[in-house]
Design brief:
Length: 105
């Protein structure tokens, strides 16, 4: 996902092909549920470092420890005890004044 695509998605609602998670210091517990749902459909983008407010607005909060969160997530997603198929996962990192955002597809 390019930076421009991410900015466009941040200004729209969550759809069935994108999910935003806060993930400041750790992989959210619900991340693998999202991966499983995407694996059973056409796939989608999982974005760490964005918080969804009560009104549905999206705010960049940033990922503080990018390497740890990225490595932990990829380790979980590639663990055949948690995900039964091997998924090709592409990733991108984008920096904003509010913090860094990791996008996985």
């Amino acid at each position: 996902m390019t930076r421009d695509e991410l900015l466009e998605k941040l200004n729209s609602a969550e759809w069935n092909d994108i999910e935003f998670k806060e993930a400041g210091f750790a992989v959210p517990k619900s991340a693998l549920e999202t991966v499983r749902a995407f694996a059973n459909t056409k796939g989608g983008h999982l974005v760490f470092g964005v918080k969804e407010g009560q009104a549905g607005n999206l705010t960049i909060t940033g990922v503080v420890d990018v390497d740890k969160v990225q490595n932990d997530f990829l380790g979980q997603a590639r663990n055949d005890q948690k995900i039964s198929v091997s998924l090709p996962i592409a990733e991108s990192l984008h920096s904003f004044p509010e913090g860094k955002v990791i996008c996985f597809f």
